[in-house]
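Input chain follows. Return structure tokens only.
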Amino acid sequence: MTQEAILNSSVLDDTFSLLQRKKRTDTAIAMQQLATYLMKQKKALPPNEWTAFTQIVQTHPINNLLREAPQFAHSQTWPRGYKGDAEMMDLIYGMGNNGQRLARTSALGLQINAAQEEWPTHQAAHRRLKKIAQTIDTVAHEKPGKAAILSVACGHLREIVYSHAAIANLIGQWIALDQDEKSLALIQKSYQHVPIQCQHQSIASLLKGEKIGKFDLIYAAGLYDYLKVNTAKKLTETLFDNLQPGGRLLIANFTPNTKEMGILESLMDWTLIYRDMKDMAQLTTGISQHKAAINIYNDLLNSNNRLVYLEVKRKIA
């Protein structure tokens, strides 16, 4: 497909026209139409042609309209220097300064934002927060006041707002580890009522064997979406080694069923590494089955599923 053919695509032009009307129903139709078209191209084109396609699509005038919405605007620059930063996640969660951003957003931008809120990916991200909070509460209930928790690549640690144990200060030790100092600073400012130890550290140091303690729960919410298989496998083994007897490891990953990946990659410059249940099982091959109980499951049992979870529990000898 030539550059001229892509830019003159009737789907892109029709979507552009619908967005220009700035009517809620038209905008919702436009966003669904756009996501479907881009996913179709993603599946049809070889990787190198898809990359070239996305570069051309980004020059279409439709981008000027999409940038009126906070998430699209943020993804144009990724101001923290990496994809999927905590500021973007706040926009998806509707937390942090999201309200201030929306107050300055145009009518069209608000309509686009509302359409994105309906994306199964975004709804899955919300459920992921609650899933992690529920797991935190379970572990805290098992060891009242003594549970040790490690959040790897913690972002803004927004699962706190859904955790009763965090709000009631029932956790013995909670380490929030991240490479982004701005994220850690926000945690310290926002959650002073929770005794969290913020640790500025990358996963590279963990992979080199740096000791950080033993934990009853270690979890990684979005980190594995960016890790290649060898790194992900080694990190899984490393984190398992840092579990207390009876401790558990929880890892989430978006799946290849993520039908929004076309629009995420082409118009938001946001590429993930997707895994299914077999891929997640591959990450545990270096862990002794005699030492671990492994559970792998999808978030939902229908076509809207976007997440797969890996839970590894260290057996008590």
